[in-house]
Amino acid sequence: MKFLKLQLPCVVLLCFELSTVFAQQPTVKMNDSNTPLHALQPNYPVTYNAPSKESIELVLNSVYTYLDAHTFASLQNKKTGAISTSLQAIDTNLILQPGDFRLTSYEWGVTYAGMLKAGQATGDNKFTDYTTKRLSFLANIAPYFKEQLKQYPQVNNPLKQLLDPHALDDAGAVCASMIKALPLLNSKEATPVINNYIDFISNKEYRLADGTMARNRPLKNTIWLDDMFMSIPALAQMGKLTGEKKYTDDAVKQIFQFSSRMFNPSINLYMHGWVESMDTHPEFRWARANGWALLATVELLDALPENHPSRKHIITLLQAHIKGITSFQSGSGFWHQLLDRQDSYLETSATAIYAYCMAHAINKGWINPKTYGPAVLLAWNAVATKVTATGQVEGTCVGTGMAFDPAFYYYRPTNIYAAHGYGPVLLAGAEVLDLIKNYHYYLNDSALQLEEK
After folding, report:
1. Facing residues of 264 across strands?
2. Cα separation of 294 and 424, whole Å?
3. What are the helix and strand counts (H, E) for the chain?
4. What is the pLDDT of residues 226-256, one digit of tens each?
5. How many other C-beta atoms lie within 10 A of the C-beta of residue 265?
6. Is 320 exposed, middle or buried (0-12, 13-18, 19+ CB in 10 A)?
7. In angstroms, rounded to a whole number, what is the distance separating the alpha carbons of residues 219 and 437?
8. CB 197, CB 174: distance < 8 Å
9. Quick check: pTM over 0.90?
10. Of 85, 147, 210, 262, whose CB has the highest number of CB atoms within 10 Å?
């Protein structure tokens, strides 16, 4: 202790002298003559570069692991909780084993398609098996619950949405995914389910006088943009499957009749709703509805014969819509809940749908890869930030009706159990995986560029 007291003044003096010396050294000012300012690293909110194959597969695997563990292809006795494998005598206590999501919802129709696409892109059969296992399960138990519905029509039948659809939401998306998966299913079991779905879409869904798919909510004779997706892909897939022209013709008619009323060519975006009794429509350009329209267009082109007389017109419409959507992408890679309202929140499911559709359009040669490729990768990198380590998808707007005021859209909640996010993330990841196989991305003067491999 005595030693420290004797030495302390010397230490303080030395520190003072050193600080004086360093303070006297000239500070080099960073400026344009001595620093390559253009090479400074920006503070991007999401990764600004091409994703790797490994990073994409990590996201896909994470989503798969979560969904496989929380959506069950089994029956359960609602009173005892016991898992049932017997389908002998009708038991009105049998329900689908509850999980985080509903196996018969339109959102899960998108998820089934996303799993099939992920299986193709990765070569990993677990994704494909996810879809075939659950669709096979539904097709297998359908006759049992059809008989239950017949004998006990007042009982809450767990397959009523599948057996007795009352809206396009009940039928279209699952129908389209089941047709895609049909080669992997028991055809004798799956075909009656498909036929029941398509019968509702073609013959029972409410339509306007000119045949356009419509609803009588929230107002009489209302067209929902969402219904482009809830009808067109199933009709197009059925036309491809059966070769019957009536289905393809109906799908093509729908896209043109929706677009003639709802597509604004001055900004190349769709409004969410159109009402026959309105002379002037408030144009709320809801992001996910524009996503459903874009996805319906892509699905139609995938199923449409190459020599179809309307094909070029539909590609032109697709190109215009993508041009409009891309012009509103935010700097973080996401799109806003209302596309042209930059103070509305950034939304995940629509961003994932756009990433998928644009990547698919590039891979198919429908749009210029150099123009749109960087926007696609920016979008995927943004979406990837919303997939948690446990495979849940954040930032997805919950199910949404139609409104004619902005507050409704601005304040719709987001939730990790909003089923709309999962299928689009799977589709986007799978398609971007194909994209980076086909194209080489690189940075030039810090800007992301593309060229063919």
Report:
1. 269
2. 12
3. 15, 11
4. 999 999 999 999 999 999 999 999 999 999 9
5. 10
6. middle
7. 47
8. yes
9. yes
10. 262
